[in-house]
Amino acid sequence: MRRVAKLSAAVAASAALALTATACGSTSSDSDTSSSASSGGGKGIKIGLAYDVGGRGDRSFNDSAARGADKAEKEFSGSIKELTAKSSDTEADREQRLTDLADAGYNPIVAVGFSYATSVDKVAAKYPKVSFGLIDSVATAKNVDSITFTEEQGSYLAGVAAALKTKKDHVGFIGGVDTPLIKKFAAGYVQGVKDTNSKVKVDVQYLTHGSDLSGFASPDKGKEAASGQLDNGADVIYAAAGSSGNGSIEAVSAVKGAWAIGVDSDQYNIPGLSKYKGSILTSMVKNVDVGVYDFVKSVHDGKPLTGNQIYSLAKGGVGLATSGGFIDDIKTQLDAAKAKIVDGSVKVKTTT
């Protein structure tokens, strides 16, 4: 059984300098609590994980990254040190957190989220012998593997599914924060809906704006937003909002005939959401775990990946989950839409 133990008080105090919120990050019992933990007793590769707000247990983005690290830890007899952000973190906090991992001898170090872009470049330059991985943004330092995804392509397929499943010709999108990354999700979704049925209305809403990243860690806000869209007539809602999306799924489950579309992880199969799975139409799966595992393996093999690894729809980096069988009846249409994206006949927008 995997053991997770608290670090010493000194390390915990250092960890309080924290990280940040990201792409589709966050959740857990207290999003404003920075924490650190370590696992495994292996003598192999030492993996450092700098999570987004909420860290392991968010049932979405961070958990996907964790799965990749767990696989590598087990396969390579390694160990993991996890540091988790708080929503009030500053750039200095992020730099310190990455520095703490490097000073503790962890290599590789994975920064889970676009908010680490600047800090990764700064810290990587100071530790040229350490390999850094950055998810959802592109770094410039030579010893960094930038792991990015074509979220707009997977979201396009989610839009196709929504347009085919709505009975009211009215669907919704909830983004955690109006960042460029989350706008990619929205753009692809809206285009997928409209290309499938131009008559379908799409409501687009963001929970927070600008530097307020709490929209990734506020299930109550997600629930409220989804309830509002449902009241306004939407019957399919796609949320790209970290743990806030869990609240959206809860709201949808309370309305007969309505569907939720999950994000990042296959949320139908997440234990903490099991009581709502009958309402989870599909999830736009973003295989962060694959990117993390590929990166860690490359370091273990002595050939660290660098540059930008783009995980596209064609490469299986994004796609729709089929758990529950709720989209089996529209598989032909979804396969056709995927084929058009892959062969280039459909260009998916990254902004609306």
UniProtKB/TrEMBL annotation:
Record-annotated ABC transporter substrate-binding protein PnrA-like domain positions: 51-350
Secretion signal, residue range per the UniProt entry: 1-23
Segments for region (Disordered): 23-44
Keywords: Cell membrane, Lipoprotein, Membrane, Signal
Gene3D superfamilies, per database record: 3.40.50.2300
Annotated Pfam families: Bmp
Keyword Lipoprotein: yes
Ranges of biased composition (kind: Low complexity): 23-38
Protein's cellular compartments: Cell membrane
Membrane protein topology class: Lipid-anchor
InterPro entries, A to Z: BMP_lipoprotein (IPR050957), Peripla_BP_I (IPR028082), PnrA-like (IPR003760)
Lipoprotein recorded as keyword: yes
Similarity annotation: Belongs to the BMP lipoprotein family.
PANTHER family: ABC TRANSPORTER GUANOSINE-BINDING PROTEIN NUPN (PTHR34296:SF2), TRANSCRIPTIONAL ACTIVATOR PROTEIN MED (PTHR34296)
Protein name: Basic membrane protein A
